[in-house]
Amino acid sequence: MFEIFSWDDLFFLGLILFLILLFYFRGHNWSIKKIPSSNRLGGYTLIYADQKQGGKKDKDFGKLLYSAEYELQGKPDYIFKKRFGRGIVPVELKSGSIGDDPLPHKGDLLQLGAYFLILEDVYKVRPKFGRLAYKDYMFVVKNSKRLRKEVQRTTKEMREMLIYGVGKANPSFVTCRYCVCNGTVCTHSGTEIIGGKANESSCGEE
Prior knowledge:
The protein is an alpha+beta fold. Helix content is 31%, strand content 22%. The strands form 3 sheets. Strands 1-8-7-6-5-2 form a 6-stranded mixed β-sheet, with helices on one face. It has a two-stranded antiparallel ribbon with strand order 3-4. A two-stranded antiparallel sheet has the order 9-10. Helix 2 crosses helix 3. The longest helix is centred in the N-terminal third of the chain and has 21 residues, at 7-27. The chain is globular.
């Protein structure tokens, strides 16, 4: 029989296949996924809610969850657990809409990230992902190392500000536009005149 492919040809074809698979999986790697809002979570059962539920007798419902390891506390709207397995998923509901924004509001994202840390300590299970549900869309958010570090860095800065009374302001349109202090008590969110017109979303930056 004639040799159709040489070893060099096979090696080259294998390398091409490897690169195709590498780019495929990189393209499908995600940390935050935006999808239409839904209250369905197949294969999971409700184990916690931030308020007592009618007919539910679970003693944990409505309790404040506290993590001694991370010194964080909070009450996620809902926590679901896999029917078969130990996986848990925090779900946070938001009253507003997200519209065309490709990402959730940063404060909401950090809040969910804080719940990841709290649940890991309280339930001794690290959630793989959580949900941020707005009226129109929701975000499936991975419990990534990057998000966890951002939460810990932010909480550290907040504690230092409480201790020393000094905080580092980082005003920007993205971080300030949904803040309740924007345009009220915050001295870093004052309207500036740019090009002869008031820019109400400048948050102090040109």
